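Field notebook, page 264. I keep forgetting to write these up properly, so this time I am using the form the group agreed on. The chain and the ligand, NAP, are recorded exactly as supplied. Prediction of the bound pose follows.
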Amino acid sequence: MNSSLSDSPTSHELTTKSKEAVLITGASSGIGLALALQYVEQGFYVFACGRNEQKLNSIKGATPLVFDINDKEQIQQAALKLATSLKQNNLSLTMVILNAGSCEYINDPVHFDGALFERVIQTNVISMGYCLEHFLPLIGANGRVGLMSSSATYLPFPKAEAYGASKAAVNYLASSLRLDLKAHGIGVSVICPGFVKTPLTDKNDFAMPMQISADKAASEIINGMNKGQSEIHFPKRFTYLLKCIACLPKAVVSRMLTPSADKA
Ligand SMILES: NC(=O)c1ccc[n+]([C@@H]2O[C@H](COP(=O)([O-])OP(=O)(O)OC[C@H]3O[C@@H](n4cnc5c(N)ncnc54)[C@H](OP(=O)(O)O)[C@@H]3O)[C@@H](O)[C@H]2O)c1
């Protein structure tokens, strides 16, 4: 698949209130789609990224940028097209939200699935390195990067060895990058949602307390990005509860979270 910046009428007909642009990965579905729609609504020039061109084309008012986040060459091509578009349309790229990701669970811990582990780390972390390499140099002064993590990182959860490890790596990446980009005038936000109703969580077969809609999640993220928050976490009742539990002694936390059949 080649990266492509669509020439669809939507990108030409776009009327932007400002010349600020935002790039969102994983914009074809769930939280990323809701973000793209809200930023378009607010008058931003939106570069909506994903692999599914058809889905991206249906986001009215956004400009599709088609690439696989795990393919370095496709990202490089996409960045070239992005740079051209920024110049031609006199845009300043003020926000890059690296939201795309996947979730797979380790169902048999004894026969640990190394390939699954690699897939999840690749898509949720390594790909961010590729995107940062090519998109960071295009961010304008006072820009901001948003990196999608998860509130799953506050506590160890069963079966989340791969997903949790990938998102914990994103947290560290964000914390470290924040220090180094400060002198360059670029802010970094790490985004830690609780449960959000999307195709990703629709596959889960367990209870998801305090789940919110993708629209609500997008509003929280946009608000946090606007305020320049280092950590954007929501819904607060849920995330503060996890943060409080994380303060308990490790043995207590472990007992609380060990699946009941395994408790001695
Ligand atoms: N939903 C939740 O409760 C929740 C909670 C915490 C964190 N998150 C995080 O939020 C992010 C978005 O999740 P979601 O719930 O909105 O899931 P989703 O509806 O499944 O959307 C995932 C998005 O990522 C894109 N993507 C996946 N692999 C890709 C690849 N190799 N190349 C390019 N794009 C790729 C998908 O694009 P395609 O159309 O190309 O597949 C899709 O647009 C993820 O990082 C997830 O871990 C979600």
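OBSERVATIONS:
- DSSP finds ten helices and ten strands in the chain.
- The beta strands are 4-5, 20-24, 45-50, 62-66, 92-98, 139-148, 187-193, 196-197, 212-213, 231-234.
FOLLOW-UP: compare against the apo run.
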